[in-house]
Amino acid sequence: MNGAFARTFRSGLAPVEITAALRKEMDTHASPVARDRVLVPNRFTVRMNPEDHAAMSALGAGLIDELTELLTDYATQQRYQMASPPVIALEPDPSLTVGLLDVRSASEKVEVDWAPVLEIDGVRHALGARTVIGRGSEADITVDDTGISRKHLEIVWDGRRAEARDLGSTNGSTLNGARLTRAALPNESMLQIGRTRMLFRVVARAREH
């Protein structure tokens, strides 16, 4: 598993335990409304000891993104349906001991924004309207790989769709194994520049009002 889930925790709560608890909460509150339609909650609040909360918060937004993706994938596998993409919040609760958590859920129509990210070696990078990836310090995302040009590749995001463009690099770029010059970038696309593989994803985040 990537990002936050690759971390090893010697004590207290681990991210995989949060995933298991979220899945259990979703299963517990699954409500069949028709033969092929099972509704499940989409808003989840995970309470935990402040010490565990501090450890989870230190992992940054990548943890929430991964939890959201894993829960979305699980709902798809189980053929569950939600009012809108899941929203997960982590909250400290002094009444809980270290290593324990409490999950509460509700069904609510939530407005979401779709945010593009690029995963490189398990690290998730947020993308802007135009993001340049390369070996040079002038790139927005700098990658230490001698097979990469100083400004190698750019990703353009218009708020709904992404496009990848090779910037005339020496060794070229590939998209899902095919040579890339300029092409639309679907969700879950695998890019490679030099020896570096990068996963492009679009993740759902609750809209802030």
TrEMBL record:
Record-linked Pfam families: FHA (PF00498), FhaA_N (PF12401)
Coiled coil feature spans: none
Location of the FHA domain: 131-180
Keywords: Phosphoprotein
Protein name: DUF3662 and FHA domain-containing protein
